[in-house]
Design brief:
The protein contains ten helices and 25 strands. With about 475 residues, the protein is of the alpha+beta class.
Length: about 475
């Protein structure tokens, strides 16, 4: 920073896997962290807290595979202490959460990661983000790269698998990419095990009166989507492109339990950020991709109603899998050999082979097909019948046989499928760009500049928060 703030240094703090099995939430921990840091240091918040979703196909991911980055400026004299302060605050967060829930932090599924990076951010963070978003990343590889970087401060106690997501969340800002926002409200710590109490009619009203929010409800299933279902501290979360619309949720969405805190996050969710152009020969297990393919086989319906279709490009062939809950099985059944499609999704191992799980499909070209039948007998006018493969045709009326006759064919006028097909909102993963965001994309990140902390996050009831 320059001018009167020139003795301030910019710090990026990345967090991931801070939640416990069935309990906690990394966004909740990040909210606690930023408020505790503001008590200890004179900080400048330089961006909304970043909620960065990563590769949705990774089998060991947490529920939403989301990491958080906090971007602040602090007095440079505290740089040597920021890692220790962060560790102490997260230690305190775990101690309070575990004491309240009566559980032990020393459980094998806890793999928290914390990374602290100083400006200017090294390019390696951008590379880690891209890789963690679209492919498989090994924690030991990330740790080795970070330890060789002088702009990185590592928190001694928190170097678990979450170090990948923590570094990736920091690196998101290095990409010129689309973004959205999410307002997350948090429950009282005394209600974690209770059903959430949110007035559904108020969610419908909020959805109907806001223009730039998305995935609040699923019209097809009449299901409310703003509330999670686990024991985590999130009460509800609303997503959209306009911060001021999201803030309206605090007044419009009626709840019958206390909101202990709220935070606004800037995020890559709802942007299709994980989709990259690939060819079939570039696919590996858990890689995400956008493929342009030609349909090579007839759709096959397997148990539970899922559909498999063989397709390929100039580099190879692969089985496309359309799962019934996605409702993409309906269009998959109508595909015919020769059709050209563009599919979004990810590669996964299945039955000793790698297949492609489809999360979106665009039919770009439909092949022309014909319906053919035998002609009528030229002698008596009865319809001819095929005798067998290569054996010609026979008239059952007059008994005559014929070889090499011309069939009667006409065009099969198919349903027009040339459009984008998507799952219903309830089946869309966090990163999938919903239909109403097309044309509303942001071209690049906002520049880092100071934002008043109380406009981004607030602990409403400290005694209920943690």
């Amino acid at each position: 920073m320059t001018g009167p703030e020139q003795d301030y240094c910019v710090v990026h703090i990345g967090l991931d896997d801070i939640d416990l099995y069935q309990f906690g939430c990394t966004t909740h921990a990040a909210t606690y962290l930023i408020h505790e840091l503001s008590k200890l240091l004179h900080i400048h918040l330089l961006d909304y807290l970043n909620l960065v979703r990563l590769n949705p196909s990774i089998p060991w991911k947490t529920r939403g595979n989301g990491a958080v980055a906090i971007r602040i400026a602090i007095p440079c004299r505290y740089i040597d202490n920021i890692a220790e302060l962060t560790q102490r605050i997260i230690d305190d967060y775990y101690a309070k959460l575990c004491k309240h829930l009566g559980i032990d932090i020393a459980e094998p599924h806890v793999n928290p990661g914390i990374v602290i990076a100083l400006n200017p951010l090294p390019p390696i963070y951008g590379h880690i983000y891209t890789k963690a978003l679209t492919d498989v990343v090994l924690p030991e590889v990330v740790l080795d790269k970070l330890m060789k970087n002088s702009n990185t401060l590592l928190v001694e106690r928190y170097r678990g698998r979450g170090i990948v997501g923590a570094a990736a969340a920091i690196g998101w800002v290095l990409h010129f990419s689309d973004y959205t926002y999410e307002l997350i409200t948090y429950r009282s710590k005394y209600r974690y095990l209770e059903p959430r109490c949110v007035d559904e009619s108020s969610v419908y009203l909020f959805n109907d009166t806001t223009r730039y929010t998305f995935n609040n409800i699923d019209i097809e299933t009449n299901r409310i989507l703003v509330t999670p279902h686990g024991f985590d501290p999130v009460l509800y979360g609303v997503r959209g492109d306009d911060v001021f619309e999201l803030i309206k949720a605090l007044e419009m969405i009626k709840v019958c339990e206390p909101i202990s805190a709220w935070t606004i996050f800037r995020s890559n969710q709802g942007t299709d950020a994980h989709i990259v152009e690939r060819s079939v020969n570039e696919l590996r297990s858990y890689r995400t991709a956008r493929l342009r393919l030609r349909i090579l086989g007839k759709p096959i319906v397997i148990p539970k109603g899922h559909v498999i279709v063989r397709a390929g490009d100039s580099t190879g062939v692969i089985d496309l899998v359309f799962f019934k809950p996605s409702k993409l099985d309906t269009v998959a059944k109508k595909l015919q050999i020769g059709d050209e499609v563009v599919v979004h999704g990810h590669a996964k191992p299945w039955a000793h082979e790698v297949c492609f799980h489809v999360e979106k499909i665009i039919v770009v070209k439909q092949t022309r097909t014909y319906i053919c039948k035998p002609p009528r007998c030229p002698l008596c006018g009865c319809r001819l019948t095929k005798k067998g493969f290569g054996k010609g045709y026979k008239c059952l009326c007059c008994g005559r046989s014929f070889m090499n006759i011309e069939l009667e064919c006409h065009i099969d006028y198919r349903e027009n499928l040339k459009k984008l097909f998507m799952p219903p909102p309830s089946e869309q993963k966090h990163l999938i760009k919903p239909l109403n965001r097309y044309g509303r994309e942001h071209k690049e990140h906002l520049p880092l500049k100071e934002i008043p902390l109380d406009t981004v996050t607030k602990i409403v009831e400290p005694l209920l928060f943690l």
